[in-house]
Amino acid sequence: MSAPERPPQSLAANLSLAVLVFALCAAGLEGGARLLAPAPKPRPVAEYIWDWQQKWDGDFYTVRSDSLGWPPWDEFNREGLRDRAHAEEAPRGVSRLAVLGDSVTFGDGLKPDETWTRGLEAALDESGPGVEVMNVALLGWSTRQQRLAWERIARRYRPSHALLAVCLNDVPELQNNLSRPHPLLARAFRASALVRLLVGAEGREIASVEELFEAPEPERVRAGWERFFGEVRELRRTVAADGASFGLVVFPFRFQLEPGAPPPRAQQRLLAFCVRVGAPPPPWRACLVLETRDPRVKYQSGPVHGWALPAEALCPVSRFEERFRSLLTAGYSWINLSAYGLFRGDLIIGVELPNEPGGVPPGRTSVNYSGPALDPTGKPGWALHLWLTA
What does pTM read for this prediction? Predict the structure, then answer.
């Protein structure tokens, strides 16, 4: 005898039951997540790190201007930049340098004639006219906006050279603005502990430039540098395709000029990047020599290690030349020349010798060269700590 047939449940009832089960499961997961991932307290972000959507509702802006280039004292030109008007064709015999920057290059708080780009042009004019400097900078621009400014504005004027003027807050601005989730996901992240646990987005934002100097380097800082380097590579490629040369200058951040400033990790990062991509490193003002066997020279170990020495223990290569010739004929079996690193813009070369000459005939001394010590990641460590004593 067959069992009686059960009446089929309606589709609506099945869907309602599924929704109820899902809601109960979601509520249970949300409750558990709230115990594991309470609502984070927002980290205050420094006011000099701009949110592009809040400031200008997009990823690029210029200042609206009706200037036609005359009168010449209009503060903003027809491109919406704080610069004098330029004809698209440069005068005969004149090359153009486009400086791409932010508020420092813009000259925030300064008159247009007081900006460093005007000072650069005046200094170049002292050796004869022939270089026209374009100030392509606005408040809050980062490397992304500077790249777009080259593509949308500067390249029409066919500059011979592009100079990227870097402020270190470019790195957190790129990271914070480009890693930000979709607005709907951002609202869900703020409202739901479960979303916070699944997304794991805490700590994506860089709150201040000081974080670029932390060791070990936080993941958010590493990601910010990669975004920055990506923008620089793309800008460099575009500038080269337009037939112009490309250079980069980096400004120290304000706290780096104060007593007790940390080692220049950010500048070392930039130098290592320039070397890695084939851009020449900045020229050294002088190559100084440190003879490590000098009894006045003391090596200090510890978390921050380096050399303590009187200032006269460093001497320019031109002055060391005669001394080096005498070392080559003194009978030493070897002489080590080591690039220790950078100090105040100079490359310091250390000279190491055996304790005593070994009677080696002239011309048979082995001269060994080595670069700076490698950091834990295998990159050259260009930072050198010197303490100059009286």
Answer: 0.63
